[in-house]
Amino acid sequence: MSKEVTKNVEGMKTCRRARKASCSKDILSALEDRVVTIEKSMGDINERIDDAEERIDDVDDRIHDGLQSMQEELKEYVLDSVEKLNGRDDAIEAMITTLKEEIAELKGELTNYKAALGNGGLAAVATKPSVDVPKPKEFKGTSYARDMDNFLWVIEQYFSAKSIMEDATKVTTAVMYLTDVTLLWWHRRSTDVRHSGIEIGT
């Protein structure tokens, strides 16, 4: 009886051992599967990390290139601005030099005027008094050449006294002293001239 019990007990122990071994194998197999899965996951993670690093490197390169381009553009802008400012400085210096020369000339003229005034030259620089110039008499026209010559001489003296030098002003002023037949003649004459396009001189 004891032998049979012993055999049964040993058989049960053997079964338990076999079961334990089988369970251990299953656990090991499951662990191996998990390790493989983890390794695959780690491989995917490493690939993602590598891809992210490549993208980061690409972004860094772009940022570096962009900064370098901006630095070059900024440098060109600064150099161009400095060159323009230097040109303006040269222009300002030239203007200042010109103004200094003009001031020196004015000072020289002022010194000469002061010397002239000190030497009694006031009368030389004094303005001329205005003279009341009598107006010429109206010219009605005549058959005598002497009357025509007298009118022309008087009108020339009037121009000289009034400092009238331009021909157009002389003609306009002389017409103001024509009347009757001479004014009618002038009206026809000026109309013909306007049509022909020829100016009337003195």
Automatic annotation (TrEMBL):
Keyword annotations: Coiled coil
Domain of life: Eukaryota
Keyword Coiled coil: yes
Coiled-coil region: 35-62, 89-116
Name this protein carries in UniProt: Uncharacterized protein
Originating species: Gossypium lobatum
